[in-house]
Structure prediction request, 472 residues.
Amino acid sequence: MERPVAWTKLKNDKDVFAFASDYETYLTHSKTERECVTASVTIAEEYGFINLKEVLKSGKTLKPGDRVYRCWMNKSLMLFIVGNSPITAGMNILGAHIDSPRLDIKQNPLYEDSGLAYLDTHYYGGIKKYQWVAMPLAIHGVVIRKDGQIVPVVVGEDPADPVFCISDLLPHLSQEQMEKKAAKLIEGEALNLLIGGRPVAEKEAQDGKEEKVKEPVKANVLKLLQDKYEIEEEDFLSAELEIVPAGAARDLGFDRSMILGYGHDDRCCAYPSLRAMTDFKGVPEYTLCCILTDKEEIGSVGATGMASHFFENVTAEFISALGCYSDFTLRQALLESRMLSSDVSAGYDPEYASAFEKKNAAYLSRGICFNKYTGSRGKSGSNDANPEFMAMIRRILDDEGICFQTAELGRVDLGGGGTIAYLCAKYGMNVIDSGIPVLSMHAPWEVISKADLYEGYRCYIAFLKHACPLEN
Prediction:
């Protein structure tokens, strides 16, 4: 049952390329979850969304058509558009995550060895460690000083900036290294970021004699950090600095049909979900909700992951602003909701055909992909969506002429992976995984099709418009 190629059905290529261009800009400037939240709030406010916290402070009661957002610890974001139906009829929800695999700088990271200065890192999420060596890297994040001042850091993106790297062993000396399995080719503790090689000028002691600096290259780096950011070594203790590939998202291919970029997983689902909300016209029948969440790549843990109660707590705040809060109302609203858990799928790669089962694989340029279940080893950790819900989605997408496909994540007993779907399904709502096929998923640079990105956007708009309650 082969699905059609989306490019052959799209009516206007100009819309596809314009949307992709906007997405590339977003992707280039949103390489951390904090940057994603900041950029997303800026876009949301341009389309009339206001801060839910301010609404609650004012005592205003929300009415149909009102648009609000709520940031959570600057790493997660929820948006709502109030519908005509009571909140107990449930919401139409889009959910995606905005964290991506990367390297995080440790709390005591800075050291010098053999005249070179380094930062220690700990990798975040599932990566192939050997992919991160010998390539230009940038540092993004924040340093929070003891006085509470937030110092933003972005180094390696401006053409005038320096970049950083993790060194690799030359082929001439790699005989022993090349005998290792790929998982051990580069050890986690060897992912040390090279950041300097110039010693600080030696100080003059009070007696006129030169004082020997113990670690002159490290001292020079600290001096530069003090001069530029007014931070000292101990400030690393309260820093959140992420190592990401340096450079902008770019068109891929002579035909410019694809995008090469860092963080497609899962920002290629987060951005069209956001835009589907901002571009929604009029007052919806059912309240609309968009969740952009953190920590999915490490199991949705922590205060900003979907396994926390932030989704439930913010929804409670929203219902309070509607003027109808009760525990029953909250439970009923969550129970009756419908959700697309938007996360990427593994695109079929003919160079690695043995990893896929071709009839049940996601293909680039065949539209948004639905995964009824993910999981591994007998669907462990899977949501396993109900067929009644999938039937409704099929009807919506066919009526709107939107290209879609279905897939599993790799061969049985080989593939698998988790999303946020099962965490929302615990409320009793209908949830299914949907997202964009990606080549080289979790690599520093990933690949998607512009046609799939645009069909994902169209799918999310259609779902927000037409999804309705199913009988439980």
Q: What stands out?
A: The chain has a mean pLDDT of 93. The chain has two domains: 6-100+262-466, 102-245. The first strand starts at residue 50 and ends at 51.
